[in-house]
Design brief:
Elements (H helix, E strand, L loop, with lengths): L7 H10 L3 H14 L4 H14 L2 H14 L4 H11 L83
Helix pairs in contact: 1-2, 1-3, 2-3, 3-4, 4-5
């Protein structure tokens, strides 16, 4: 087996965009053997299978990815998109339904939608009165501090040499 670079998914995506889904499938399958926890590889693999018309293999690759990475949002979203009824059930294949542009088709930009302004009513907070409580007088007993006596030590006598004063 040849050495697979960790960038294999990027290379497979480039192949997919270049209209070479079979080559992308081969590269993803090899890469997943080496890097089985790479969610993007399963997504690209599914899109490549989808472009070749092999819907079962596309769904199977997403399910393989979900077995290893059950909480991956991208895989979950793509899996739910593949499970929704499309015209593929009538024999037609629409790779665009998964957001995959055909190689000869430009990407479509969706217009921005205006979000309505929502005003929330002010809610008056009730004033909470806590009952007053008496603090008990607590008297602490006096404690005597022990007197600490340090042992007397003899200080050595230090003789300094006499110096002449000018």
């Amino acid at each position: 087996m040849t050495s697979i670079s960790p960038t294999f998914a990027l290379q497979a995506h480039t192949l997919l965009e270049g209209g070479q889904p079979v080559e992308a499938i081969s590269l993803c399958e090899q890469g997943i053997e080496v890097y089985p926890d790479y969610a993007t590889a399963y997504t690209i693999l599914a899109k490549a299978y989808r472009l070749t018309g092999d819907i079962r293999a596309a769904v199977g690759s997403i399910e393989r990815g979900l077995q290893r990475l059950p909480l991956d949002r991208g895989l979950l979203r793509l899996h739910s998109q593949m499970q929704t009824p499309t015209s593929e059930q009538s024999g037609q294949q629409e790779p665009e339904s998964l957001g995959i542009a055909k190689p000869d088709q430009p990407d479509i930009e969706l217009p921005e939608t205006e979000q309505p302004d929502i005003e929330l009513p002010e809610i008056e907070q009730p004033e909470i009165q806590l009952p007053e409580t008496e603090q008990p007088d607590i008297e602490l007993p006096e404690t005597e501090q022990p007197e600490i006596q340090l042992p007397e030590t003899e200080q050595p006598e230090i003789e300094l040499p006499e110096t002449e004063q000018p």
